Amino acid sequence: MDLITGGVHWLANVAGAIFFAIISMQVVELILAKDDPKHLFECFSVLSFCSMGIIKLVSLRFDGKKWRNLLNEAAQLEIEELKEERNPSSAEYESDDENDFAITKYTRRYNKSFNFTFTMLSRIYRFTAVIYIASPFIQYTLWQMKGQKTVEYPHILPVWAPLDKMSIFWYILSVVLETVAAVYCVCVHIAFDLTIVGLMIFIHGQFSLLHAKSEQIAGSGKECTLCRERDERAHTRIKNCHCFHIMLIK
């Protein structure tokens, strides 16, 4: 999925269909495990994580236009701010050595924070996904090495798989579908969480910028001589801060 362009690749649609099919099989397995508390808890915990993925996916798909508009507005706001810094209005002159305010300082700060969060969160999700997918097979291998005979083949997700005993083909197919569903679920979580966190970081950075702009309304205070030019500058900055605040709260 691409929140900016609004495009959804056909592979994402196929993976989404597989994800919902696997969720249905998990629900069946949850019902069948009502007499096994340990397995019931396992099914419930995994199904809860996948259900959160469904909620996030529904939000990304059905509210995709709103998400795209929000992201586009954020990007456009940053572009306009940087353009304003490069081409300030005539009333936005600086006197008495006040020219130390830079919008780019704030944009670099929250962009750096977002890049760090993006890297760390993506790595955590990917590492967790790899461990979760590999752990059932590692555990099964260790049991085999210790001579413990297991009745059932390992599964990545606790799903209802009645065809496993019929043929190894159906078991391999089930594992492949479970892998696709697990990876897709993790990707949905990453896309949604990074979008939310990114917007929160951006809004925090913008309000920090608004705070800094409001502090610059009357200048640095080094020169307090009253004059028409300084009043015009202060008036222009008040209007800019007001307009900027209105854009943020919308």
TrEMBL record:
InterPro entries: 7tm6_olfct_rcpt (IPR004117). Pfam families: 7tm_6. GO terms for biological process: signal transduction. GO terms for cellular component: plasma membrane. The chain crosses the membrane at residues 12-33, 39-58, 124-143, 168-192. It comes from the Eukaryota. GO terms for molecular function: odorant binding; olfactory receptor activity. The keyword Cell membrane applies. It is a multi-pass membrane protein. Keywords: Cell membrane, Membrane, Olfaction, Receptor, Sensory transduction, Transducer, Transmembrane, Transmembrane helix. Signal peptide: none annotated. PANTHER family: ODORANT RECEPTOR, ODORANT RECEPTOR 19A-RELATED. This is Uncharacterized protein. It comes from Papilio machaon (Old World swallowtail butterfly). The lineage of its organism: Eukaryota, Metazoa, Ecdysozoa, Arthropoda, Hexapoda.
